[in-house]
């Protein structure tokens, strides 16, 4: 890059888009001008990539969510010009950080599933794989979380209200999507996905819903203005907002409309391009030779009947042939074993949205039944395999029959799919099932967000090659017994903790000590993730410290953060509890120099970038068997935190790679929980363990106030006094409490030996290479996509 040219074109852009003199421009102006300048810089490469390899096999990642976060810093890193641009701006007296903080997160996802899609985009481009992302351009991303009086309050997230610096509207590629009751236009917005220092620019194509005819003049001419506006709104409603549920599915018409909308537009797009490129020698039989579609969970499964529809109805392929083509095109990833998440759609909703797809699904269902009867299965034995049963369409079943591959996202998770969730299917078609352990992109989650550690690693290894091949971190092991290196590790962590402490003081108004242990749990709030286990442990610890002021204890800061689905009362109760504990503890001078509690407001990708680098302890405490993989656990590990975790999801693989002795494993394993499932009685733990009783009783003693919301009673009841047929302590919080507490005590002791701790930290960093999403995406490319 030519520095002078860059500066020139930056200032030119700035003045052109604002019509202001340089000195009068705002941070917002400066941010958008920088986006423009970078978009110009990559334009050529992007065009090259889009036009280069038309007749070749490509992968298409279909996902209702892409949780991209901010793009500015990451794009500069991937272009290899981060430092230079910072310098250029400094020369003209612009502070990069203030510009950077102007960017709103693109929060087009809920949590792990959406963020995984974004990491995959980064890794695919970095590995020079031709992978397209297809999704939805929600006008409102995941709600912004405010905390009022300790309660979560949701606010809209109109992330593009000031503009969108990273997309290009490709009007000419618009598609028409037909629902039973309306027809809309799908307009693609393309975001460049940059590979790391390699000139590859892939495309994330997000569809926006707009009225088919901008303004219906017949209504207008008849003075029916309202009606004209209404139609416009009804079209735009489809992509107005991301559903904020991370586990519980939403069985609403509009949700299925969103799914069908982006899947239909994407399938039409693929078919149209295929026809355009292969004009003369077009053979639809070969469609699956050039396309593989990876379905990110059940949300895009409606793409399956849609492809059949487009082939049969619009291209005169016969049905059975279309089914064959489709079966060879799709692959399906599952992200959860929680029953409440597996999507089913009632027949009447599907008829209301996409009747022709329903017909096709009925046909596919008949085929399944026929085929299995031929195999000798009885009507009853066929039941688990039916795609439609009791007028419900079971999307996972549809995906499994119609895909060539079904994968889970961590070893244990895939095993549970085979043994349990999809066991019926596994028995009949074991060859379809495979594991792809998740990963994270080291560019965003280390190179960009933890510059200190990143520079240190490059210095120690003598090269930056590890950024392309993260397994090279293994080379750090030669410093395991080098005291100077270990001290440097501690120093870097300390500096990062200071940065976070400053940020938390500014944003949460709570002062925390960077010399204390930073113990962090950040993720969506859910009972299975057991933030309440963390919280009742803090309550108990607080009481202990009050009763025992001379107790030997290493000061600890407990940091929690995450959003609750707006309709999930108990998750909201957990947030209120965290804030209430923080209020009581932080205002109690007797314990104030020992523990602090912070609930960070509005946890999101850009907040994560500040939290992961500053953690000493990574809390990964889900009930064994429930967290499919987890990816936050990997971000912590890569940044040198030690995992306090159950034997669950990818934690298991973290323990395997870094050594369980360098982390803190606790809690019951899946097998044990399965065994005691029916006989489990949490009251026994409550009555026989004083610490448990102490903490659980505090929920009702009046010491903690929920402002008459009955929220703490609800948590109490869920643990030992279940209501309305619910199972007591469904997630085994009380069962695991004692072990959790003991493990915390161990941590608290061992942290004092700062060098031994640093050694463990280094062990984790050095063995985080396996968790690069580069590794994951290459496995998809090799095993499933055959790219
Ligand atoms: O996917 C998460 C898993 O819980 C986590 O263990 C895993 O690491 C991650 C990536 O594989 N699942 C997840 O984030 N799911 C959702 O966000 C989600 C979103 C929407 C809906 C269901 C789940 N929905 O039904 O609308």
UniProtKB/TrEMBL annotation:
Recorded catalytic activity of this chain's protein: [(1->4)-alpha-D-glucosyl](n) + phosphate = [(1->4)-alpha-D-glucosyl](n-1) + alpha-D-glucose 1-phosphate
Keywords (A to Z) from UniProt: Allosteric enzyme, Carbohydrate metabolism, Glycosyltransferase, Pyridoxal phosphate, Transferase
BP term (GO), one: glycogen catabolic process
Cofactor(s) needed by this chain: pyridoxal 5'-phosphate
The keyword Transferase appears for this protein: yes
EC number: 2.4.1.1
Positions of modified residues (N6-(pyridoxal phosphate)lysine): 635
CDD domains: GT35_Glycogen_Phosphorylase (cd04300)
Biological function: Phosphorylase is an important allosteric enzyme in carbohydrate metabolism. Enzymes from different sources differ in their regulatory mechanisms and in their natural substrates. However, all known phosphorylases share catalytic and structural properties.
Classification via PANTHER family: GLYCOGEN PHOSPHORYLASE, GLYCOGEN PHOSPHORYLASE, LIVER FORM
NCBIfam families tied to this protein: P_ylase
Protein name: Alpha-1,4 glucan phosphorylase
Source organism: Anaerococcus hydrogenalis ACS-025-V-Sch4
